[in-house]
Amino acid sequence: PGISANLFRSLARNGISVIAVAQGSSELNISIAIRKEFLVKAMNAIHEGFFLTGYKELNIFVVGTGVVGGALLRQIHRQQPVLMKTHRLKIQVAGIANIDRMIFDEEGIKLDRWEKTIKEKGEPVDMDKFVAVLKKMNLRNSVFVDCTGHPDPASRYLDLLSSFVSVVTPNKIAASSDYAHYCALLEAAKSHNVKFLFETNVGAGLPVINTINDLIMSGDRIIRIEAVLSGTLNYIFNTLSADMPLSETIKQAKEKGYSEPDPRIDLSGTDVVRKILILSRIAGYPMEKEDIVVKPFLPAECFEGTLEDFFLKVKKYDEMFEKQRQKLQKENKRWRFVARLDEGKATVQLMEVGSDHPAYVLEGSNNIIIITTERYKELPMVIKGYGAGAEVTAAGVFADIIRCANL
After folding, report:
1. pTM score, two decimals?
2. What are the b/e assignments for 188-199, b being 16+ CB within 10 Å?
3. Is 327 a catalytic residue?
4. Which residues of the chain have pLDDT under 50?
């Protein structure tokens, strides 16, 4: 029993339609007709379904090889033999695109020299062509991994999901887009039996989205989320001192790579708004970006003009912030840039927290997420740890890729 089910399930999850089928009284002989272009993919999918029961293959296509994408490729390279040996999972990188060039190899790109290969044999990058080649290669269990922060790759997700390609990304643009588009992405993934995973959109490698999903799936209800979600701003307010004024801490955060190239994106709260919006939607609240109330801690004039203008303007507020910092120190309080969701209403603002608050002891660029639910009401759940950094973010992306294998 189950021979036919295994056959058709293997084909369906790889987007292969059966045009005709013939079967006698025995399940030992089943004839099917499919489009010729799906022949190789169908043979591989059926072979995997029947003869490689303890063995799974993922074909991934990575876009973006900056700090996160580069770290991801290094991690995959190190872990490939371990996953094959211990989990019978073969991960093949079939395509890579950086800011200039792109390469493909359906047999798998050698990750010990991919940088040299893409430089010597790569062709000029073209996202239309990248997606077209991905589809034409038609490899089973394909995963599109977007390690950029750009809208162009994000605009391809719906098409890819509808083409039976899973999508994994730390790029927040799609999950924080219009609610209708966000829902369309989830529906496309569900109806085509593929994955749309974006755990690293919030908290880098911290297990935030999966935890909330598990709570809701098990019948719990999210009442409140209070979180420090900006590693950049947490670093800035932890570094402020009499010897390190606000303007200098912002420069230092930029130089160390904690902030965006333009730190005003972090300082305006734009990044945090996207994160709390995503968490609100995961928690079951159909919110739009405009529904979130943002209370800026710097005046609007600081965000006008060039980046050089910004650093000149923000110096004017160094003295004011130092006086307030000294006052907070006497009161045993600290600044935290807090995103809060409370019964469907969300705010983002700079807050003063006392020593009794879980975020008071938050160090460096760490994040903290405090989740209050109907089950976790008296003692809320707390998730805390590194909320920024290439290695932990890449590790979170890697974990999502492995989830696509349904191990």
Report:
1. 0.86
2. bbeebebbbbbb
3. no
4. none
